[in-house]
Design a protein that fits this description.
alpha+beta; eight-stranded mixed β-sheet; 6 helices
Length: about 220
């Protein structure tokens, strides 16, 4: 069975598609839109940054130009582009563990104006498919602030299992915060939803707020973000 480190399992192209979204590498031209949604208060609330600037956005995008998805120890950020019109609506991220290379953590963030349409669920299902079917990983985890109900509900809906609830385990933005850890195994993915269904968003999808997501520049929770 091929392993993560096998050359034949490394994706030739750093992108994937869902019925409505194209996940692709970030380009320098994305910086303004990227920084704009990251600076929104409802996005920053559960993220590690505050007052996100255009310069920070440019620096992050430039730092990823020579990184391949699946590089152990490195966050890789995919731009989420709406296929219908090419608009950047958010991003998803994946970081392969640098010591256990068959495990990775995911994250996601949507611009506030594009929340409530089921894009978060669709994007995370697409990222899980990419991680398990292209990178051949064994386990994917996600960490979110325990107060981020929207992110937790989204992770429940994509089939991830709530594995832990850490109480006041992190000092975050001036106060002690608690976190949930979610996980899913490759065999659970194979036995369950293996692809993104070509269906309209459900009633629960419309309750998404800022999609949650860990970030390459520090992690607190997912922005369903």
């Amino acid at each position: 069975m091929p392993t993560f480190n096998s050359p034949e399992t490394r994706p030739a192209v750093a992108h994937f598609e869902t019925p409505r979204l194209h996940a692709r590498p970030f380009h320098p031209a994305d910086a303004e839109a990227f920084a704009a949604y990251r600076a929104q208060p409802q996005v920053e609330r559960y993220q590690s940054w505050s007052n996100y600037t255009l310069e920070q956005g440019r620096t992050l995008i430039n730092s990823m130009q020579n990184i391949q998805p699946g590089t152990p120890g490195e966050w890789y950020q995919f731009a989420l582009e709406r296929r219908a019109d090419g608009i950047l609506i958010g991003d998803v991220a994946l970081k392969v563990n640098d010591t256990e290379k068959s495990e990775a953590e995911l994250g996601f963030t949507l611009a506030p104006e594009h929340q409530g349409h089921g894009y978060g669920r669709e994007a995370v299902l697409g990222l899980l498919g990419y991680a398990f079917e292209q990178l051949h990983l064994h386990r994917i985890l996600a960490v979110t602030d325990a107060l981020n109900d929207s992110a937790a509900r989204l992770l429940d809906r994509v089939g991830m299992r709530r594995e832990a609830h850490f109480h006041e385990n992190v000092f975050f933005k001036g106060t002690w915060g608690s976190e949930f850890v979610f996980g899913i195994l490759d065999r659970e993915w194979t036995a369950g939803t293996r692809s993104v269904p070509d269906l309209p968003p459900t009633e629960s999808d419309h309750k998404e707020t800022t999609e949650m997501a860990p970030s390459p520049v520090g992690i607190k929770g997912l922005a369903v973000k």
